[in-house]
Design brief:
- The structure is a single chain.
- 36% of the residues lie in helices and 18% in strands.
């Protein structure tokens, strides 16, 4: 988009002289920067954000500095204007000259251009790998087949070429500012049409912009073709851009900006003067806002503006787009349009940035807090939102950004609405006060989710796309990587994966325990890790870790979007952890949040446990679903293969799981304490009744306390037999002291009398023993009654056990004396 340089008379030196002492005013009026940012202190950069990377370094000369995107060729105000407006040096000179009322010369001065972020972008461009030219067309065709109605010819028309980035074959598209000298942005799309997988710092995304990219133009055709075009079509997003470029009528060009719907209308667009411009956006709220912003900008640039109306309903987010309409068989020349009226432009232009001051003929007067906050929400579409007292916004590419400070909040507000003017005088609401009031009044969510639930949970913000239902094939291919011990275990693996997606009530998810009867190396940890990978990672805990520290970690910002907790490689012969048992069934997890105070989150967590040989306390046994794995066929590349499979097929896997959870529920014969989960998740596997039978059988086998109860009762029966009682028919009182000694002998413990008493009482209450119950002796002493299975209800209770034990000891002593060699 070549810009005609103004041919005028004054030198650069004369323009600088005329601007001397006026640079704060000029930078604000011409460059569009808030004068509050020109006080020499550190601020967020008006171009690239951050927190304190920007400042004015010589306001008399108009020199600005950003250590991220404007750290070279930045010594005066003319360079700063070029950087702020993304224009070349002659255009910056002309703009300043117009403002100060003189004409610039055309003597060759003013050929430099601030490099800013483009130099950093060039470093990343140099890292892109080349693709053999012989397969270029094949790769373009592959992308076109994945994204109809895009064609290879349309991609080439837009300058798209295949490259290698981070080992992936991608289509590269270059974005330019109006000067069109070097790329200002590089946008990548995978040739297979799939989204880029989530990383530690980025969520799943349809396209990826190289580091150093700034908002700029993607255009079809050459600068000359753009100049000659009668109609310019402005669309939202890369795939709509390529789809339109593949189906353009003669005399049309198509453009889009590189930074999405919320950045539309923010780029200089003088090149459209005198043209017809048709603006199209997605049929969702951000898309409609982008249409209005673009229409206002094009109207101001002298274009005749029309709005292309797609015949789809307007959704809150993720509405249908131009490519959906084209795929129905329509042509661009048949797109329904309506001319934008001056009244509409006036109405849309009223969306000025929020402020705390109302201008009057005599200066300004303060605006009340309620009006300031209302203005902010009106201008931003009711953003930001908050979760547990923390403000955030979703940039529509599903990147969550936290707004914890006044500088981060007002930096975001400026990026969303334009330069924000804020009075700092007494009587005006401050930025800090405004931040607190916005936080108090913002729409509140209970949680932020980076993967969906099925069904979606009310009051949760989903920073993700909801995949379409699949046919189950990809999910079955995933399960083929693992080695369940039985077919029922394969079904339980499916239930384990689906539990993380299930949007049922909080505190209603059993833990899932992966075990193997034949030892280590069966893939237990790997299976737990892959479930966590699908849902964006896990919070790892250790057995017997301080539960307060665990809760603090669960309430940290990084953990709020995670829904899997892993307890790996438990090493104990009898696993019990009362705090974890309580956490599994809690509706809400409350604890201390670092640097904030008290915090909480609803308990939609799924706990995954791995151990060799299940031996659990009764309470833990009742909270787990055990899945057993068999011996795998070892393959050196297995782990990487399954990781890559999940990364490449994440949306398809989630789509298959959504379809699974939407299947009709099967009527089950019975339910356990986890009836809600069994009804909504387990009932949808192939054979839910057999799966539940297996779960209950394994719970019984893993219950170490039940086995211990049998051992204790058998031991007591043996000792009573040795004392001459009939344990099947007699009713015998056993004092606590004796019961405690026998219990310790049976279990190998060294517990005190009170601990043994509690253990035996619990065994009886939980039906782990049936013949020992608490009682008092005829003299009021505490103890237990042994009641034989066939004891007569009217038979007398024997209280002579102490006498029989003493007699038995005496007999043993006599026998030992008789056998003595002395």
């Amino acid at each position: 988009m070549n810009i005609t340089e103004t041919q005028n008379n004054a030198s650069v030196a004369e323009i600088k002289s005329a601007a001397k002492g006026r640079w704060p005013e000029i930078l604000s009026a011409v460059g569009g920067i808030d004068r509050e940012l020109l006080d020499g202190k550190h601020h967020p950069c008006p171009k690239c954000g951050g927190t304190d990377r920007f400042r004015a370094i010589d306001i008399d000369a108009g020199a600005l500095f950003c250590n991220q995107c404007f750290d070279t060729e930045n010594g005066d105000g003319l360079s700063a204007i070029g950087w702020l407006r993304d224009c070349d040096f002659p255009t910056a000179v002309s703009s300043v000259a117009d403002y100060v009322g003189i004409k610039p010369s055309s003597n060759g001065q003013g050929k430099r251009k601030p490099r800013g972020k483009i130099s950093k972008l060039a470093e990343n461009i140099a890292k892109l790998g080349a693709v053999y030219p012989t397969i270029h067309d094949a790769l373009l065709s592959m992308y076109a087949e994945a994204k109809p109605p895009i064609t290879p010819k349309g991609i080439k028309k837009c300058g798209g070429v295949p490259v290698i980035w981070c080992g992936q074959r991608c289509i590269r598209l270059d974005g330019y500012t109006q000067a069109r000298k070097k790329p200002a942005a590089v946008v990548l799309a995978r040739v297979d049409g799939r989204p880029f997988p989530a990383t530690e710092h980025l969520l799943e995304r349809k396209t990826h912009s190289l580091g150093g990219s700034i908002n700029s133009w993607l255009t079809s055709g050459t600068p000359e073709e753009i100049k000659q075009a009668r109609t310019a079509l402005d669309v939202e997003g890369t795939t709509d851009f390529l789809g339109a470029a593949s189906n353009l009528p003669p005399g049309w060009v198509v453009v889009t900006n590189t930074c999405g719907a919320k950045a539309r209308g923010k780029l200089p667009c003088e090149w459209v003067g005198g043209k017809q411009v048709v603006v199209v956006g997605d049929t969702d709220e951000p898309g409609q806002e982008g249409i209005e912003q673009s229409a206002v900008a094009y109207h101001k640039a002298g274009a005749t503006v029309s709005i292309g109306r797609l015949p789809f309903s307007i959704e809150e987010t993720h509405g249908k787009d131009l490519r959906d309409w084209l795929n129905e068989g329509h042509k661009l020349e048949d797109l329904p349009t309506e001319i934008v009226t001056s009244e509409q432009i006036t109405e849309w232009s009223k969306a000025t940035p929020p402020t705390n001051a109302l201008s009057t003929g005599a200066g300004s007067v303060p605006i009340q807090m309620t009006e300031v906050v209302k203005m902010i929400f009106d201008r931003t579409g009711n953003w930001p939102r908050q979760v547990d007292g923390r403000l955030f916004f979703d940039d529509n590419d599903h990147n969550i950004r936290w707004l914890d400070t006044a500088s981060s909040f007002f930096g975001w507000l400026a990026g969303r609405c334009g330069i924000v003017h804020w009075q700092r005088e007494a009587g005006y609401v401050t930025k800090e006060e405004t931040l607190h009031e916005v936080r108090r009044r913002a729409v509140a969510y209970k949680s932020i989710e980076i993967t969906p639930h099925e069904p979606l949970i009310v009051d949760h913000h989903y920073a993700c796309k909801i995949p379409e239902c699949g046919d189950g094939k990809v999910l079955n291919d995933l399960f083929d990587f693992f080695c369940p011990a039985t077919d029922l275990d394969r079904q339980l693996i499916k239930a384990a994966f689906a539990t993380g997606l299930w949007g049922g009530p909080s505190g209603m998810r059993p833990a899932v325990m992966f075990t193997a009867s034949t030892g280590r190396g069966k893939g237990k940890t790997a299976l737990a890790e892959r479930i966590a990978q699908l849902y964006g990672g896990s919070i790892d805990v250790s057995a017997k870790e301080d539960i307060a520290a665990v809760k603090t970690r669960l309430l940290s910002p990084d953990a709020l979007s995670k829904r899997i907790v892993t307890l790996d490689n438990v090493k104990t012969t009898r696993f019990s952890w009362a705090d974890l048992e309580s956490l599994i069934t809690a509706d809400t997890i409350s604890g201390k949040r670092l640097y904030v105070g008290d915090g909480s989150r609803p308990n939609y967590l799924t706990v995954l446990v791995t151990l060799n040989g299940a031996s659990l306390s009764t309470d833990m046994t009742q909270r787990v679903v055990e899945v057993q794995l068999a011996d795998p066929l070892y393959d050196g590349g297995w782990d990487e293969s399954v990781r890559q499979f999940i990364e490449s097929n994440r949306s398809a896997i989630l789509g298959d799981l959504i379809a699974f959870l939407r299947q009709p529920e099967k009527k089950m014969r019975r339910y356990s304490r986890w009836g809600t989960w069994e009804k909504h998740v387990l009932s949808r596997v192939d054979d839910p009744d057999s799966c539940l039978d297996l779960i209950l059988q394994r719970r019984s086998q893993a219950d170490a306390e039940e086995e211990e109860g049998h051992i204790v009762e058998d031991y007591f029966a043996g000792r009573l037999t040795s004392l001459g009682y009939d344990p099947n028919c007699d009713d015998i009182f056993i004092p606590n002291r004796i019961a405690s000694q026998w219990y310790n002998d049976a279990t190998g413990n060294r517990s005190k009398v009170t601990a043994v008493t509690r253990a035996l009482k619990q065994f009886y209450n939980e039906a782990k023993i049936s013949r020992l119950l608490q009682a008092r002796g005829h003299d009021g002493s505490r103890g237990f009654r042994w009641v034989g299975d066939h004891a007569d209800a009217g038979s007398l209770i024997s209280y002579d056990i102490c006498h029989r034990i003493a007699k038995q000891h005496a007999e043993h002593s006599t026998q030992e004396e008789g056998n003595s060699p002395w």
